[in-house]
Amino acid sequence: MTKKISLYIALLFVVALTQEFGLSHLSLFKISPDLVTIFIAFISVTIGQKTGTSFGFAAGIITGILSGNLGLNMLARTVEGFIAGYFNIPENSHATAKQKTTRLYGASVTAGFIANAVLAAGYNPLGLSLTYRIVVLGLLESFLTLLLAVILSRLFLRKSLAD
User: Within a 13 Å sphere around the CA of 121, how many CA atoms are in the beta-carbon half?
Assistant: First the structure.
């Protein structure tokens, strides 16, 4: 398990850099699919809520430093890991890969939407109303993140979720 956690920590840096310098440039109304959310959801679903919350906090530090908005990102990503942890499937369960994948999708959408609401409450680069930022842009980002989660689960995460 320690070896797996070390790998996930290294992957967190790669995912955060990919998000900040790659996916964030593919945006629509300052909204882009969130790879970090999917990663935190994956950790929370497969390992647990405490680990997911810790990885969320670490992801918040990294993405906060990269984006220049440290405090708000730390809060949003920590909440994201905590919320995604409610979708955890215990290691000793007999859940199928399909059930785990469904939980990953649910965790990605729910945690991403809640984190987006936290970010929308504290950061407003476009000068839009809070309701619009939370409802419209939050739903749009959740939808884009879900599409990315589906693509990643089909291409890369199938074996990890089957274990």
Answer: 11
Cα separation, 115 vs 107, in Å, equals 12
pLDDT band at 125; cut points 50, 70, 90: confident
Per-residue buried b or exposed e for 11-47, using 16+ beta carbons within 10 Å of the residue's own CB: ebeebbeebbeebbeeeeeebbbbbbbbbbbbbbbbb
- Is the CA virtual torsion 96, 101, 104, 106 positive or negative? negative
pLDDT in tens, 36-62: 999 999 999 999 999 999 999 999 999
Sequence-separated (6 or more) residues with CB below 8 Å from residue 106: 87
Q: Within 10 A of 85 (CB to CB), how many other CB atoms are there?
A: 23
Cα distance from N-terminal residue to C-terminal residue, the chain = 13
Measured in residues, the chain has a length of 163
Dihedral angle, C-alpha 121, 28, 157, 16, nearest 10 ° = -60
pTM confidence score: 0.92
